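Subject: design request, 223 residues
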C-alpha cells in the first residue's frame, strides 16, 4: 500500500470518528486554587473516559479574571493551535495557572464564554464548554443574552458549570445556558473539597462523552 493511499485512508477514518472538543473556561481569581488543583488531578482521567469510549477528544482552555480591573482573558495555545489532542500537553498548561487577582465579585464570566465561542474549534466536533467559577458575572461588558446568543450561533452542543448552585445569585447567572444545544448540567462547589471536585469533573467527562455518542447516533452516525 502506498504512503499516499495510507494517508487517505487514515484521513477518512479520522473524519468518520466520533469527535468532541471540550473548552475549559476557568476563573483564575484569588479564590480559585482548589478548583485549579482539581482540574490538574482529574484531567488525565477525564480525557481517558472519552478515549475509552472511542471519542476523539480535543481540549482547549480559556482563563479569565476581571476585565474591569485590566486583567485580560487568555486563550491558551498548544503549539500553533487553540486545541490539543494531548492530555499531557493540556495538563502542562493547567500547571501554569495561578489563582490571583480579580478583586471582589463579579468577574468577566460572560466575556470569557463569548471568547470561547470565537475559538478555532476543530471541524466535525461536538462543541462542549465547561465553566468553572465561584463568582457572578459582570454585565457591563457582555450581557447574559449576548453570551447565550454567541453560544447558539457557534452551535455549542453542551454546557456544564461547576459553580455555586446553592447560591441563587450565582446559579441564576448560568442556569439559562443549560438550554444550549443538548443541554448540560450544573454542579455545586460545596465547600470546595478536593476529592469531591475531582469526582465531579470526572463525572462531567462521563456525561459529556455519553451525550456526544448519543448525538452521533441520533444524527444517523458519523459517516
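Subject: RE: design request

Done. Sequence follows.
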Amino acid at each position: 500500500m502506498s504512503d499516499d493511499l495510507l494517508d487517505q485512508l487514515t484521513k477518512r477514518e479520522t473524519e468518520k470518528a466520533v469527535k468532541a472538543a471540550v473548552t475549559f473556561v476557568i476563573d483564575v481569581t484569588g479564590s480559585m486554587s482548589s478548583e485549579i488543583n482539581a482540574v490538574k488531578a482529574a484531567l488525565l482521567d477525564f480525557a481517558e473516559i472519552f478515549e475509552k469510549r472511542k471519542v476523539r477528544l480535543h481540549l482547549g482552555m480559556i482563563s479569565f479574571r476581571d476585565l474591569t480591573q485590566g486583567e485580560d482573558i487568555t486563550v491558551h495555545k498548544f503549539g500553533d493551535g487553540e486545541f490539543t489532542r494531548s492530555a499531557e500537553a493540556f495538563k502542562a498548561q493547567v500547571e501554569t495557572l495561578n489563582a490571583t487577582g480579580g478583586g471582589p465579585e463579579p468577574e468577566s464570566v460572560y466575556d470569557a464564554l463569548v471568547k470561547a465561542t470565537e475559538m478555532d474549534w476543530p471541524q466535525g466536533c461536538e462543541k462542549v464548554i465547561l465553566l468553572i467559577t465561584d463568582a457572578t458575572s459582570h454585565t457591563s461588558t457582555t450581557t447574559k443574552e449576548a453570551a447565550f446568543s454567541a453560544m447558539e450561533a457557534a452551535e455549542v452542543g453542551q454546557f456544564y458549570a461547576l459553580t455555586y448552585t446553592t447560591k441563587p445569585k450565582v446559579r441564576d447567572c448560568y442556569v439559562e445556558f443549560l438550554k444550549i444545544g443538548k443541554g448540560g448540567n450544573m454542579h455545586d462547589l460545596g465547600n470546595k473539597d478536593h476529592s469531591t471536585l475531582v469526582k465531579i469533573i470526572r463525572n462531567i467527562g462521563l456525561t459529556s462523552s455519553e451525550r456526544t455518542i448519543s448525538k452521533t447516533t441520533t444524527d444517523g452516525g458519523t459517516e
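The chain is about 40% helix and 20% strand.
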